[in-house]
Amino acid sequence: MPDRREWDVTGMDCAACVSKVKGALGQIAGVQNVEISLVSQKLRLTMDENAISVTKVEEMVRSLGYGIRRLNPATVADIVFAQDATNDAAAPDTPWYKTGKGRLVVTTGILLVLAWGISLIAPNEMKPWPFVGACLVGLFPVARRALASLRVAQPFSIEALMMIAAIGALFIGAAQEAALVVFLFAVGELLEGVAVSHARDGIRALGALVPKIALREDTAGIREVPAVELRLGDVVLVRPGDRIPADGEIISGVSGIDESPVTGESVPVSRGPTDAVFAGSVNTEAALRVRVTRTAADNTISRIIHLVEQAEEARAPTQRFIDRFSRWYMPTIVVLSAVVVCLPPLAFAQAWSVWVYRGLSLLLIGCPCALVISVPAAIASALALGAHNGLLIKGGAVIEATARVKTVALDKTGTLTLGRPDVTDIIVLDSLPETQVLAVAAAVEGASSHPLAQAILRRAQSNGPGIDIPVAQESRAIPGRGVTGRIDGMDFTISSPLQAVRDGALSATDTARATELEAEGKTVAVLYGDKALALIALRDEPRADAAEAMRQLRNLGITPVILTGDNSRTAAAIASMLGAHYKAELLPEQKLAEIRALAAQGGVMMVGDGINDAPALKQATVGVAIGSGTDVALEAADAAILRNRVSDIPALIRLARSTMRNVRQNVSIALGLKGVFLIATIAGLTGLWIAIAADTGATVLVTLNALRLLRSRSLDATS
């Protein structure tokens, strides 16, 4: 039976490293579904242990020059970066000069300086030998990795090209340049590692948010326990100033909660009994008792980390194209180098030493490192910046699609509005007293999580113990139509006036009264059995930043459209306040049709928060769930907004557009520099050390340009 396994893999600095490990493991019989995260350094795969052993997998990774440590099933929030001195693996806080690549830079640098010093006093015939020694010492670990790649049928690795170029330079008497090339290559690899570690910092910081210790209440009192041992239903005490150790629900106490470590929202929010709280949030004011609702492996921080890891697998179309391009680009460069070496001497009687030198230089400048890392470096930076600002994006494909969005379709209730409507009017249409109307309505809505249902329940509960809410049997939601339930053998329904008219339960007079309420911007629910019993009017105010968000979308050249199942008059009132187009009285299948129609005009983003929105979120070019929405909506969506700010929608689009600009800049830098130096190398204007310096420089420039995205810690319109 196939088994899913997970490891930490250390020493990977770029997308080429990931491809190397993935390609090697993919060739092993019995290994399937290999997933590698460069940012979190996680390796996951499915393996048949009857065909292959865990040890064989680990030996394969180590043979490629990377460290590997097996993980037991545990929380992903507790990320550990193991140290393996024999495989260039280092803990995240290890100084650069103590890592394997750092030691190689220091060693080759010292040997290069010594070689130059010795060459000043040594006889002419002995001057090259110190450089030969320096070159061979620095080349040894590179050659070992090149041979390991060759054994797994990956002959065109950068290490292989480097080894060929350095050894070739030694054979044509360019020992000084060979030693300098090896040193610059080591420096380039070290800089790549340092740059990539910045992208990892954001994920490490997320994992560090959850406290390691929790104060758990049990029969023996309150005692400290590891946070990873908390189970569902455990009760923990959170003192003022403490971080909350698990996702949970407040049992007692009222306090300000600083959720900025999780959602990016800078202003603490007041939370009290029955309110949900996130692991990693900070309790700022008073002691709280919290019941654990998610284990450490499933809390908000862990889910964010897991989503970021998954996002790396969802490659942007541009990245997939570059990956395909690089697969034939490398062999082409090797063939071109061979032609440059052989053709002039054989066809035109040119000097072999000159053209071997130029061919080796061409081999180095042709290395695709900068090109290969150009897209994933920018995407990784965007994912980290998004997570810091409460925006979860499920991969580069989502970022690229978001950058091309022309229309944003938004659900109304809970997305553009606060999602917490209040009952404003109860108009009894039958002889029942208002308290009984409320009791029946609350019973029917009791099993629903819809904001309107919760408003009716709150109103019934606020009337005090005088209302005895019965238990409804066979309660069920009819998407886009309403809720039904059976009480004491009688069927009751709560729906829109339009549906009530269709069911023959609402008279023309009562319909007119409902219309008057809707004209005031209120949503009307009709309670009826075999006839109408009451009209219940509710109002849900727009979010404070909704109008500003619509303005920002229009400034970005994007058309905002409200898609709602609410009545036309209420939708028109909200749309007029916000300055958006609208489509009202839509059933879920009608929302899908609207999304398809909008998609025909260009990329469309759908933003919603409810179960009813899940199909539309899937249908849209990009589906975005508001973080307070249901798990169904979050699973269906391509991205999520954790802090419930409508203004984060244009922020997400700005981030996507900035990222794609960065990608285009990176590709231009990588290809532009290579194009210039390829021509200069063939013309004999550049040498080996300039070739490797240009390749290393291009890689570093591309990575630093990608990291520019992380400079802007805020995604506000003014940033």
Automatic annotation (TrEMBL):
EC id: 7.2.2.12
Membrane-spanning parts: 104-122, 328-348, 360-385, 663-682
Keywords, ordered alphabetically: ATP-binding, Cell membrane, Membrane, Metal-binding, Nucleotide-binding, Phosphoprotein, Translocase, Transmembrane, Transmembrane helix
Pfam families: E1-E2_ATPase, HMA, Hydrolase
InterPro entries tied to this protein: ATPase_P-typ_cyto_dom_N, ATPase_P-typ_P_site, ATPase_P-typ_TM_dom_sf, ATPase_P-typ_transduc_dom_A_sf, ATPase_P-type_domA, Cation_Transport_ATPase_IB, HAD-like_sf, HAD_sf
Principal location class: membrane
Gene3D superfamilies hit by this protein: 3.30.70.100, Calcium-transporting ATPase, cytoplasmic domain N, Calcium-transporting ATPase, cytoplasmic transduction domain A, HAD superfamily/HAD-like
Reactions performed catalytically: Zn(2+)(in) + ATP + H2O = Zn(2+)(out) + ADP + phosphate + H(+)
Superkingdom to which the source organism belongs: Bacteria
CDD domains: HMA, P-type_ATPase_Pb_Zn_Cd2-like
A GO cellular component entry from the record: plasma membrane
Annotated compartments: Cell membrane
Keyword Nucleotide-binding: yes
Domain HMA as annotated: residue spans: 3-69
Membrane topology: Multi-pass membrane protein
Any one Gene Ontology molecular-function term assigned to this protein's record: ATP binding
Family, as annotated: Belongs to the cation transport ATPase (P-type) (TC 3.A.3) family. Type IB subfamily.
The protein's name in its UniProt record: P-type Zn(2+) transporter
Record organism: Endobacter medicaginis
